[in-house]
């Protein structure tokens, strides 16, 4: 069973169309809009940054 699944994944005749996102991301990160680079990725970056800072403050305050 596993052999069939891996064989189908490797030898598939159907190809997926992949779009190059690099130029779009380069434009986004190179804009001069006074947003720090670590927050330019959007809401996920803001949430990750806020969580990291909160955990750091809690850990260092003990």
Automatic annotation (TrEMBL):
Keywords: Membrane, Mitochondrion, Mitochondrion inner membrane, Transit peptide. It is found in: Mitochondrion inner membrane. The keyword Protein biosynthesis does not apply. GO terms for cellular component: mitochondrial inner membrane; respiratory chain complex IV. Signal peptide: none annotated. Gene3D superfamilies: Cytochrome c oxidase, subunit VIIa. The keyword Transit peptide applies. GO terms for biological process: mitochondrial electron transport, cytochrome c to oxygen; mitochondrial respirasome assembly; regulation of oxidative phosphorylation. Belongs to the cytochrome c oxidase VIIa family. This is Uncharacterized protein. It comes from Eptatretus burgeri (Inshore hagfish).
């Amino acid at each position: 069973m596993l052999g069939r699944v891996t064989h189908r994944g490797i030898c598939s005749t159907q190809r997926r169309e992949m779009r190059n996102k690099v130029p779009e991301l380069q434009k986004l990160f190179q804009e001069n809009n006074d947003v720090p680079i670590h927050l330019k990725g959007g809401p996920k970056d803001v949430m990750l940054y806020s969580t990291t800072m909160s955990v750091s403050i809690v850990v260092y305050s003990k």
